Amino acid sequence: MNLSTHLTNNGISRRSFLKFCSAMASLLALPPSAIPALSEKLGQSVRPSVIWLSFQECTGCTESLTRSHDLTIEELIFDYISLDYHHTLQAASGASVEAVRAEVMKSSFGKYLLIVDGSIPIGSGGVYSTIAGKTNLQMLKECIPGAAAVIAIGSCAAFGGLPAASPNPTGATGVAALMESRLIPRKMLVNLPGCPPLPTAISGVLAHFLAFGRFPALDDLSRPLSIYGNTVHERCSRYHFFQEEKFAEQFDDEAARKGWCLYKLGCKGPITHNACAVYKWNQGTSFPIESGHPCIGCSEPGFWDKGGFYQSLDNAALTYRASDEKDETAIEAGHHLYEDNCVYCHSADPSDFKTEPDKIPELLRSGEVRSHRRLQFSEDQISILEKYLKSG
Length: 392
Known about the structure:
This protein is α/β, with parallel strands linked by helices. It has 2 domains: 3-227, NADH:ubiquinone oxidoreductase-like, 20kDa subunit (Rossmann fold); 233-391, Cytochrome-c3 hydrogenase, C-terminal domain (Cytochrome-c3 Hydrogenase, Chain A, domain 2, Irregular), CATH 4.10.480. It has helices at residues 3-9, 14-27, 34-44, 60-66, 73-80, 95-107, 136-143, 155-159, 175-180, 199-212, 225-228, 239-243, 254-257, 276-279, 313-322, 327-341, 360-366, 379-391, and strands at 49-54, 82-86, 112-117, 120-121, 130-131, 134-135, 147-153, 172-173, 189-192. The strands form 3 sheets. Strands 2-1-3-7-9 form a 5-stranded parallel beta sheet, with helices on both faces. Strands 4-8 form a two-stranded antiparallel ribbon. Strand 5 (130-131) and strand 6 form a beta hairpin. Helix 2 (14-27) packs across helix 3, helix 3 (34-44) crosses helix 10 (199-212) and helix 4 packs across helix 10 (199-212). The chain is globular and about 65 Å long.
C-alpha cells in the first residue's frame, strides 16, 4: 500500500496532505514548482521500516519529535513511516522487542531507515552504555549494514554532544566519526544536530528522503543547508540591535528588558548554524534568544567546551589565544568567522588567497578595502581569523 492510500484510509484529507507538502518544501528551500513533484512522489512512496536506536542521550530528541506542530510529526509521522523499534515509544520490552528488531533487519534488509540519537561510547570496550546485554557500538554494528541510510538526530549522535565534553570519560563519539574511523560501515548519512534539534528538521528530512530517495543538499558537516546554511545571528529578531551596537550588559539591566542584543552575555548566534529563529519552538511561539537567553551554540561540534555559555565570543577568543591547547578551537572559531563573513566575495578555500595570511589582519584594520569596512572585527576576532587562515 502506498502512502497516499494509507493516509486516505486513516482519514487524512488530500488538502491536509498538500498543506504538509507545502510546509516541507518551504523548510527544505525547494521552489514552489517542486511542491507537485514532492506531493506526487511522497504519495506514491511505500512506508519504510524505521529502527530508532537511543544510546547516550537524555530523550530530549524524542521529546522534540513528539512535540511538533503544523502537520508535522504528531499528526502525520506515524503514517509516513513504520516505526518498528524505539526504546522510549515502544509498548513492549525485553526479548520480544529485540526479536522484532532482528525480523525487521532481515525482512527489510537494504531498505530500512536507521535513526540514531545519543552518542556512542567506545571507551573501556563500550561498557558505559548497554542494551539487551550489548554495547551501543555492538548494536550499531548489527543494524547499520542493512540500512538504506542513517539519520543522526541531535548533537550527541552527530558530534558526541554533552557526553563527549572534556575530558570525555566514556569515549563518547558521533556516528560520522565512527564512519571516518571505519569502526562502522559508511552509509548515506545526514546529521541533524541541536540539543535537541528542531522538530520540523526531523520531519522535513524524512519527507525529502521518502519522496526522492536521498537527503537534501548538505554542508561539510552533513547538515541540511536549508536548515543549517545560515547562522542564528543572521536571522535573529535582535539583529538590528547588534547593528546599532545596543547590547545588554547583564540579564536584569534595562537594556535586557528592552530586548537588546545578547552578544556580550555570551550569545553564540554568530557562529551557530541553525534555523531556530525562523521555525522556533512550542508551536512557533519563541526561541531562546527571543525569550531572553543567549544562544549556546548547541548545533555546532564541541559546543560544551567553547569558553563558557555566558562568555562573549570576544572574551572566548582571548581564552583561545592564552593557551596553545586551545589552538584547534580557535581555528574552528576562525573558520566559522570566515564562512559567515568572507565566502560571499572570496573562495571557500582560503588557500586561494593571493594575500599572505600575515598581511590580512593589517589589511582589515586599515579599512582600505571598502567592502571590509562593514565587518568591524574586534582584535580578538582578527586574531582567530588569522589562526584559521594560517592553518591551511
